[in-house]
Amino acid sequence: EQAMETLLSSADPWLRSRAIYAVGALRLHDLAPELQRMEPGADTATRGAIRMALHRLATEGEAEPQSPAPVQIGMGAGVG
Q1: What is the pLDDT of residues 61-78, one digit of tens each?
Q2: Do residues 45 and 16 touch, judged by C-beta distance below 8 A?
Q3: Residue 1: closest CA among 25, 14, 11
Q4: What's the rounded Cα separation, in Å, for the pair 13 and 43?
Q5: Predicted pLDDT at 19
Q6: Contacts of 68 (CB under 8 A, 6+ apart)
Q7: Is the torsion defined by CA of 61, 3, 31, 13 positive or negative?
Q8: pLDDT in tens, 25-57
Q9: What is the DSSP letter of 61?
């Protein structure tokens, strides 16, 4: 959590975006206020990532939709 908080304040937009994603994916509820603070001044893409992370935090108990694996995906068994 402390590492994500540090990355959220990074000057590097890529690091910040990864931290925003991680807050939602790892369900780091204590960092939700930091995301809410960042949202008003964020660019469009960052604002979307923040909203997605906050949505994940708000819907913690709900199952997220999963896409099935493509039928043609090779698992590498017996190949070689």
Answers
A1: 665 555 665 556 556 665
A2: no
A3: 25
A4: 10
A5: 96
A6: none
A7: negative
A8: 999 999 999 999 999 998 888 999 999 999 999
A9: T
74, amino acid identity:
G
Q: What is the pTM of this model?
A: 0.71
Q: Between 57 and 60, name the one with better pLDDT.
A: 57
Backbone angles phi, psi at 33, to 5 degrees: -60, -35
Q: Which one-letter amino acid corresponds to residue 49?
A: A
- Asked if residues 65 and 55 have their Cβ atoms less than 8 Å apart, the reply is no
Block residue for tokens 């994940």: 56
User: How many CB atoms neighbour CB 49 within 10 A?
Assistant: 23
- DSSP string across 20-56: HHHHHHTT-GGGHHHHHHHGGGS-HHHHHHHHHHHHH
